[in-house]
Amino acid sequence: MKSKFLAAGGAVAVVAAALTGCSAGGAEEASCTNEIVNADATQVDVWAWYPEFEAVVDLFNETHEDVQVCWTNAGQGNDEYTKFSTALEAGSGAPDVIQLESEVISSFSIRDGLVDLADYGASDVQGDYTEGAWKDVSSGDAVYAIPVDGGPMGMLYRQDILDEHGIAAPTTWDEFAAAAQALKDAGAPGVLADFPTNGRAYNQALFAQAGSVPFDYDNANPTKIGIDVNDEGSKKVLAYWNDLVEKGLVATDDAFTADYNTKLVDGSYAIYVAAAWGPGYLGGLSDADSDAEWRAAPVPQWDAANPVQINWGGSAFSVTSQAKDKEAAALVAKEIFGTEEAWKLGIEQAALFPLWKPILDSDYFRDLEYPFFGGQQINKDVFLEAAGGYTGFTFSPFQNYAYDQLTEQLFAMVEGEKDSATALDDLQISLEKYATEQGFTLK
Amino acid sequence: MTTHTTAAAPPVATRRRRAPRAGGSTLLRRRQRWGWLFVTPFLIVFATFLVFPLVYAFGMSLFTSTLATGTDFTGVGNYVKAFSDPLFLEGMLRVLAFAVVMIPAQLIVALAAALVLDTLATRLSKLSRLFIFVPYAIPGVIGALMWSFLYSPRFGPGATIFGAFGLETPDFLAADSIFGSLVNIVTWQWAGYYMVVIYAALRSIDPSIYEAARIDGANGWQTAMRIKVPMIGSSMVMVIMFALIGTLQFFTEPVVLRNVAQGAIDAAYTPNMYAYSLAFSYSQFNYASAIAFSLGALVFAGSFLFLFLTRKQSGLK
Q1: Do A142 and A62 share a structural domain?
Q2: Which of A297, B8, B128, B204 is deepest in the core (most CB within 10 A)?
């Protein structure tokens, strides 16, 4: 009996130890992907998905005595946002500093997930960024992130394929449509381009080029929103693409799938309308045509006399409301990509397009030759002008939902279920309904 | 069968005889105390990881939180909304359609394989049993990823196979073929598992019954249909039960395929996916809880109804 009792007591002790062990586990240090140089300094947890980011982090840690960055890659885009959103709801688990695309800043600031950096010296670095870039991360006087890289858009094309069929690189959308027809008539195995129904920010940027301003929203007045996704500009753009789709002149493959990645580089599409990070994306893909000749040109225009520049993606660093030491976190957000050495790593190894003016305006960046483009100076030829002409964009505080709805409507359109105007009208109705359900007043 | 009863009988008898003699309820209570002690570790885990989250989620579902105006108590408001939400109802209808197609498909494959393997006694049959079971051993996500490549018009074998017959390759990921593609993945994955359950049930049938049937002049087909299938009724009910619950909670395969077919599989394709996107993509945790509970209630009701209707076959009566 006694031995049984002891055994039972032992079992309870083991269980108790195991349970307390669990609770003690939460207090342990977060594990970093990088090495911490100065272990005594304040540590700032950073989530970011930049390629080749480790070298940038190491550079920061080696040059900072009292603040050290502890970096984790928590996934790219939506994968990371899902984790961050859950951490916000749970009240703990978020990093101190997080990489975000400007399209989701309102979605998180409305949930009080981001710190207003105006209180932490954001204005000190405001002069280092263009007006458009700064507008993307701020709302009124509030600044919710420090810009890092941008996505001014251009047109990447296969010189060899266009030459083979005697087609000149289009400079307007009319020429683009004619080129698509010419390529098909010439019996080319591929098509001119892809129109992905899940292009999200890409589709949005194409609409914006024709003057679409889908959302009117200001964090200072967070319960009011204006929605206008079925304006004339958007309808014109979508009707144009739907026409190309119906004639079979462009593909409608989903973007960012393995199939799509292969088709981008194997000659299935002769033109890739892309952002400045596109060359880096292409360079990372396998199965490329070995004899492909890529060149970059400005994005086609609706009116060649009045070119409109657009932006697709790019990202920024925000300080989260769960940051332990907000001062240190703000310092990291401001300084991690605030040196020329860091940017040389970012440009040459990660193919980022800098928004930091000292490097953006430098001769080094303007004259940089890209081997992928046969030595073309793509910044000078295309992207610097595109970046300079960009004036900023306002996103909704439920952008993920808005994009999912856009994808659904575009898919219905290319399936032939509805025409382009109806698709956008239906989108307008669904977004207005959602905004009202979420407690917004429509402007 | 006989050994079972003899082995089980004595303890029952002794307990009945011993209990009153040893002082009755005191001992029983002391026994119960020990029982509770041994069950405690399980209960703690059960309460922490199941009961508490359920209660918490149910509590959440009674509130409504909007982006612009914050959180309010709305009682059953979310449930009223859920049962009039076309996205949720369409998803529910879709998984019911999956249940109607997918469960018979899995069952027929599993039953046929089990019956054939039960009749064979060669080494080949052991090997086949293993091969049919292998898909179940592959984690669901990996299996679905694998199929997403097989379905891919570019990487998949479709072009080669259909090309050999001079046919055009169908797009397995298009809006009108995705249903069949998903049915195929699930059947591939689960038929082997159900086959093992049914096979085990078949092995427990007393072979002398087959002998009697043979003497009465039954052929192989008649033995299978008239004797084997009715005798494994309870296992079949269990298998259908598993399949039904699994299908109503359909999630993994469509989520993985959504990566390559976003248009064909929308964010609310199944009720479970809808709850997931509401919570994690659109941060509507409260409404997502209500959707999850509504789905749970429907699954419970469906399972209960099914068990009630099959109470004769399953031996629950």
Answers
A1: yes
A2: A297
CA pair distance B308, A129, nearest whole angstrom: 69
Give the closest of B44, B261, B280 to A86, CB-based.
B280
Domain that holds residue B162: 77-314
Same-domain pairing of A405 and A341: no
Pick the closest to residue A254 from B265, B44, B67, B39 (CA basis): B265
Residue among A19, A408, A439 minimizing CB distance to B67? A439
Residue-averaged pLDDT of chain B: 88
Is residue B35 located within the same domain as residue B116?
Answer: no
- Mean pLDDT, chain A, whole residue set: 90
What is the strand order of the sheet A224-227 is part of? A215-217, A224-227, A441-442
Does residue A86 sit in the same domain as residue A143? yes
Instruction: Report the C-alpha gap between B18 and B16 in whole angstroms.
Output: 6
Split at pLDDT 50, 70, 90, the class of B317 is low
Q: Is the pLDDT confidence value at A14 over 60?
A: no
Total CB pairs under 8 A between chain A and B: 82
Measure the CA–CA gap between A18 and B72, rounded to whole angstroms. 39
Cβ contact, residue pair B281, A8, below 8 Å: no
Please indicate, yes or no, whether residues B50 and B86 belong to a single structural domain of this protein: no
Residue listed under structure tokens 């272990």: A39
| Total tally of structural domains belonging to chain B | 2
How many helices (H) does chain A have, and how many strands (E)? 20, 12
Query: Which one-letter amino acid corresponds to residue A296?
Result: A
Question: How close does chain A come to B107, measured CA to CA in Å?
Answer: 34
| B89 and B120 together in one domain | yes
CB contact under 8 A, B66 and A437: yes
Q: Is A13's pLDDT higher than 70?
A: no
Per the rule left: phi > 0, alpha: psi between -120 and 50, beta: everything else, B208 is alpha
Which residue is listed with tokens 């430098």? A362
Q: Do A415 and B154 touch (CB under 8 A)?
A: no
The answer to whether residues B184 and B303 belong to one domain is yes
Quick count: other Cβ atoms within 10 Å of Cβ B296? 16
User: Which residue of B lies nearest to A197 if distances are taken between CA atoms?
Assistant: B263
**Is the pLDDT confidence value at A22 over 50?**
no
Asked if residue B5 belongs to a domain, the reply is: no
- Tens of pLDDT, residues A244-265: 999 999 999 999 888 899 899 9
CB contact under 8 A, B281 and A78: yes
Q: Which domain holds residue A110?
A: 42-150+314-367
Helix (H, G, I), strand (E, B) or coil at B273: helix
**Within a domain: residue B102?**
yes
Closest Cα in chain B to A401: B282
Q: Give the minimum alpha-carbon distance from A196 to chain B in angstroms, rounded to a whole number.
A: 10
Helices and strands: H and E segment counts in chain B: 17, 2
Q: pTM for the full model?
A: 0.85
Closest B-chain CA to A416: B175
* Dist. CA A369–CA A380, nearest whole Å: 9
Search chain A and give the residue with CA nearest B66.
A438
Q: Amino acid identity of B40?
A: T
ipTM score above 0.85: no
Assess whether B106 and B39 both reside in one domain. no
**What end-to-end distance do the CA atoms of chain A give, in Å?**
78
My answer on whether B133 and B46 are in the same domain is: no
Nearest to B188 by CA among B142, B152, B227: B142
CATH code of residue A340? 3.40.190.10
- Asked if residue B1 belongs to a domain, the reply is no
Same domain for A344 and A430, yes or no, is: no
A355 within domain boundaries: yes
Closest by CA to B115, choosing from B175, B3, B201, is B201
Whether residue A432 sits in one domain with residue A360:
no
Contact A313, A151 (CB under 8 A): yes
**B263/A440 CB distance under 8 A:** no
